[in-house]
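Pipeline run #58 for the internal structure catalog. This entry was flagged by the ingest filter as a single-chain record with no existing model, so it goes straight to prediction. Upstream metadata was stripped on purpose; only the residue string is passed forward. Reviewer on rotation: M.T. Logging verbosity set to normal.
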Amino acid sequence: MMTENYKILAEYIKDMSSETPDVQTYLFVKDNISKYQLNIDINSRALKNKLIETNTTLKFEDKEANEKKSHFEIVYATIVQVNEKIKEKDELEKIILCDIQNKIYPNLEKAFLNLLHNSGFPGIKFEKKIDFNKLYNEKFN
């Protein structure tokens, strides 16, 4: 029996990339990475049998027009079975954009930080926690 409105059946890293083209770029980025910003994008698609695949993409990027920049990105997939009682579109969207994200985010953040640390940027921390409920409310109100 599903007490919650959904059940996560699987979560995995679908795609991950870290690009720093050369030493000059690395040294430049090391000095400027505090200006890099975390961006998030969530999309989902229906699979059969009431399953939904959500892809959560995190990018850590330089918003300024520097020629020297690194690129860091991770796409995290979650396969979810939604309770059949959920019929309303907005209920489903809240599950996908809030509930699931809140659940998977600690794993996703850890994987992404490991990528950054292993890419030669050991001091990185994400100061701001992403507030998925707030993002959701901003999107729909």
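catalog note: The radius of gyration is 17 Å.
catalog note: Residues 19 and 77 are 21 Å apart (CA to CA).
status: ready for reviewer M.T.
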